[in-house]
């Protein structure tokens, strides 16, 4: 067996062993700000095109990136320098780049932002370069910031033994506080008599719990759910009172409803993650020399005569997993996905086998969970 499969299988076994211990999840209260956001309080993406100069011969090769030459000619003309027509510019110290950043909510002119500078052409490295003044535009085409400064490419170096292996992309760098906000984004937060909360995940149970918690804290009819995601909350009209109200609202403790069962598979690495114990129905799966058979039978428990108890019907399950003739692993008790995965790893199934078996169980309707492959 390959060492990487052995390590991955060991990690999976440990992970699912912990999942078995947590098969009965306990709900904990969360701050409202961790499970919801206020409508209108958001970031805005900004982008700009610019030039990085001062590179040590590691810039774009102008024969393959003509837009770099055109950008340099346009920049020189804006500075009053006219390049004679037909002049062949050999620019080894210049690179065309895209500058990106996010404009936070309520940002005002004069504030600074960190920016990311990424090469557009075939520059070998941006290390040591300087970004020239670059306008940053929003989706509406308006300029909201100006970026300029020295580009820092972090994580570059050689190992102590003299290895030249790089530990970062040389064509991407950052400029700390490299952009200045020039225009504020209008906000409607202070308008109207209500604000709107948006849950991070649509869930009707969590929305109703948020409404109950808000009304319990601030009075009846303060909050009302519009759907499974948006909640309307009455707020003070004055800006100072509204800010204080929203601060108290975000700190409110709410116990979110238990999320639906979900299994995430990483087809490239073989990693499997589940958010809770997942039950399985009866099924039989054959994959190569592996076979999985799950039998679920009802078990009836009746109380004694005149005891006043009730008849209870439970599901007793048996899992049979076989890799080779004569090698069978039996598990009894409640059938859960954690049990199946743990048993598969115990007999040496590879992560690829596990992915194929889980997909087959989902297709057959035995796996009662949302299956997501990334």
Automatic annotation (TrEMBL):
Residues 1-29 form the signal peptide. GO terms for cellular component: bacterial-type flagellum basal body, distal rod, P ring; outer membrane-bounded periplasmic space. It is found in: Bacterial flagellum basal body. Its main location: other. InterPro entries: Flag_FlgI (IPR001782). The keyword Signal applies. Keywords: Bacterial flagellum, Cell projection, Cilium, Flagellum, Signal. GO terms for molecular function: structural molecule activity. The keyword Signal applies. One of its GO terms (biological process) is bacterial-type flagellum-dependent cell motility. Assembles around the rod to form the L-ring and probably protects the motor/basal body from shearing forces during rotation. Belongs to the FlgI family. NCBIfam families: PRK05303.1. The basal body constitutes a major portion of the flagellar organelle and consists of four rings (L,P,S, and M) mounted on a central rod. This is Flagellar P-ring protein. The gene is flgI.
């Amino acid at each position: 067996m390959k060492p990487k499969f052995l390590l991955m299988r060991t990690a999976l076994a440990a992970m699912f062993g912990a999942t078995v211990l947590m098969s009965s999840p306990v709900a904990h209260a969360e701050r409202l700000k961790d499970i919801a956001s206020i409508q209108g309080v958001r970031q805005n993406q900004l982008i700009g095109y610019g030039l990085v100069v001062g590179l040590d011969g590691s810039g774009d090769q102008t024969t393959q990136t003509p837009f770099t030459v055109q950008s340099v000619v346009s920049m020189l003309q804006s500075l009053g320098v006219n390049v004679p027509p037909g002049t062949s510019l050999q620019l080894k110290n210049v690179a065309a780049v895209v500058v990106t950043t996010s404009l936070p909510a309520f940002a005002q002119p004069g504030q600074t932002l960190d920016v990311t500078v990424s090469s557009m052409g075939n520059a070998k490295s941006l290390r040591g370069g300087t970004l020239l003044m670059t306008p940053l535009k929003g989706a509406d085409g308006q300029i909201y910031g100006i970026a300029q400064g020295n580009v820092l490419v972090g994580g570059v170096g050689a190992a102590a033994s003299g290895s030249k292996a790089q530990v970062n992309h040389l064509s991407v760098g950052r400029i700390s506080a490299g952009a200045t906000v020039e225009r504020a984004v209008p906000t409607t937060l202070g308008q109207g008599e209500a604000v709107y909360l948006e849950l991070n995940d649509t869930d009707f149970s969590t929305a109703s719990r948020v409404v109950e918690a808000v009304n319990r804290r601030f009075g009846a009819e303060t909050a009302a759910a519009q759907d499974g995601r948006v909640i309307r909350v009455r707020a003070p009209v004055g800006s100072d009172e509204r800010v204080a109200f929203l601060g108290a609202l975000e700190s409110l403790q709410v116990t979110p409803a238990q999320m639906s069962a979900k299994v995430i598979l990483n087809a490239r690495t073989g990693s499997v993650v589940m958010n809770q114990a997942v039950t399985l129905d009866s099924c039989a799966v054959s994959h190569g020399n592996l076979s999985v058979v799950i039998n679920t039978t009802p078990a009836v428990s009746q109380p004694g005569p005149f005891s006043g108890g009730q008849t209870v019907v439970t599901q007793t399950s048996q899992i049979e997993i076989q890799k080779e003739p004569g090698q069978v692993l039996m598990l009894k008790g409640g059938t859960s996905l954690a049990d199946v995965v743990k048993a598969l790893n115990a007999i040496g199934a590879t992560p690829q086998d596990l992915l194929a078996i889980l997909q087959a169980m989902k297709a057959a309707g035995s796996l009662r969970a949302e299956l997501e492959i990334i």
